[in-house]
Design brief:
The protein is mainly alpha-helical. It is built from ten helices and no strands. This is HTH tetR-type domain-containing protein.
Length: 157
């Protein structure tokens, strides 16, 4: 935070007033990158309904895994990354869940969902997280195709 404050020409205290703390700043930066990536994945995914969302979320996961900034963050600070990305410590998971619910409402009939939209949205976020961070959780290699497979199974329409 001190290096960033120096670079932008403000005191560390001012930077903390502006952004809260390091976790909050990380959350804002990560969301500013994740949100357009998700939007682009949905826009370019083929198909419709559950198949479209499965393909979009597989693509979203693959894109995240392929980006240097994300891989570096996960590698350098795995505990902080999991805390900021997957818990209420940051607002990223809530934002992802809201975005997921909006996608469900836009692309599927709520009556066809096996759960209420808010619960289904949370489940889909957790599916993405499970396969996105599998190397940190189980030590196995992350596989975006598993995201697509799992979500396709959940969202059969």
């Amino acid at each position: 935070m001190q290096d960033l404050a120096t670079e932008i020409g403000v005191s560390r205290a001012t930077l903390f007033r502006w952004v809260g703390g390091r976790d909050e700043l990380l959350t804002e930066v990560l969301w500013s990158l994740a949100e357009p990536t998700l939007r682009d994945a949905v826009a370019t995914a083929s198909g419709k309904g559950g198949a479209k969302l499965a393909g979009a979320l597989e693509s979203f996961t693959a894109t995240l895994l392929a980006t240097d900034y994300f891989a570096t963050f996960l590698q350098r600070e795995p505990e902080r990354a999991l805390r900021v990305l997957t818990t209420r410590a940051g607002s990223l998971q809530g934002r992802m869940t809201t975005a997921m619910q909006e996608l469900l409402e836009e692309h599927l009939d709520a009556a066809t969902l096996p759960m209420d939209p808010p619960d289904m949205a949370y489940l889909l976020v957790r599916v993405v997280e499970t396969f996105l961070y599998t190397d940190m959780i189980t030590g196995e290699r992350a596989d975006p195709a598993k995201v697509g497979q799992a979500i396709a199974a959940l969202l059969r329409d």
